[in-house]
Structures are given as C-alpha cells and as structure tokens.
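Researcher: Structure for this, please.
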Amino acid sequence: QVQLVESGGGLVQAGESLTLSCVASGSIFSIHHMGWYRQAPGKQRELVAAITSVGSTADADSVEGQFTISRDNANKTVYLEMNSLKPEDPAVYYCWGNGCWGHGTQATVSS
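Model: Predicted structure, token format:
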C-alpha cells in the first residue's frame, strides 16, 4: 500500500508556472509507475502525465510541451512542473501510484 500526499497548488496568473509535488510513503516507491491526473469542475478525472519506474514519461496531448513529470526515487517524490498555465488548466490535481490516490491539490489560474 502507498500513501500519497500532494502539495504545491495555488493561485497564479495565466502564463505563470506551478510545480506540484507528491510524496509517497509506505511502499517501495522506486518500483511503482506514477501519474498525475486532474479533475475540473463538472468534468471527469483525466490523466495528465505518467512516469514509469525507470523514468520513461508520457503526457496527454492537451499538455504536451507545457507540463513535465519527473521523479526523485531517493526522496520518494514525483513532480509535475506546469508552465504557461492557461485559464482551462485549473483543476484539482491528483497523484496516483500503485492503485492509490492522494487527496489532491487545487491549482487555480486567473486571467
């Protein structure tokens, strides 16, 4: 079982950046594939980016070139760097790993 705690959300202006962090505990972090999802009001939760245990990444088409996922196995942390945030990017961002979810962190973008 993995426990996941996200942080780093907040309110930014359009065009600015945020970096989200997700710290894992309770399992061998390095062997797990990890992912970031987001859910906007009234919409389904969608995958934003994923990273394998060996660091291969994949991004959703909607954030290609804008968001970057990375991981630090020594500190059991996965990051989501979000650049050039747009008015359509606000959502609750959730960390996922080993079948478990974090509680989410809110990112809000003002125009």
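Researcher: Any notable elements?
Model: The two ends are 40 Å apart (CA to CA). The longest strand covers residues 18-25.
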